[in-house]
Prior knowledge:
alpha/beta, single chain, six-stranded parallel sheet
Amino acid sequence: MLGAGGHTRACIDVIENTKQYSVVGLVINEENRNQRILDYPVIGSDADLCALRKSYSLGLVGVGQIKSSVQRERLYYLLSKHRFDLPVIVSPLAYVSAHATLGSGTIVMHGAQVSAGAHIGVNCIINSRALIEHDAIVYNHCHISTAAVLNGGVVVGEGSFVGSNATIRDGVRIGDRSLVGMGEVVTADFRVEK
């Protein structure tokens, strides 16, 4: 797993609860090499990924995202470049409809719900208690934060962040690289002007 912060610890907790995968160790910045996170060792830095791939086939981005998805995207593509498989991780305390799709490297945290017809792209965070309603689309590299609500048919553009307790009305389209703040209620389409 790449990362060593709070989101990494939350991901470890979900992975331990799935009993489907196990964490071997963490890949973090070179200067933090001698630490342990939740009793897991640091096994290298980004520069060691090529060598690590010889022993391990799975990787996951454990770095969180608030204002920008750039770091998560960089790490996702770095793992892909070294031919790591990026599994979909779903907490056993979450609900994902059999009629929903989840892209590689996406994690669905405790208490989240992804309803029928929803499509979640690659490398996304569907955080604790988030609700993704029917037919919603969340494009690649997005973070739908804790207790956020995306109602039916909502579209969230690539690299976007939807803050805790935000609510997006059904059918609303959010542009690429947008930031929906904590607790905001979005009732009309919007996009970031470039």
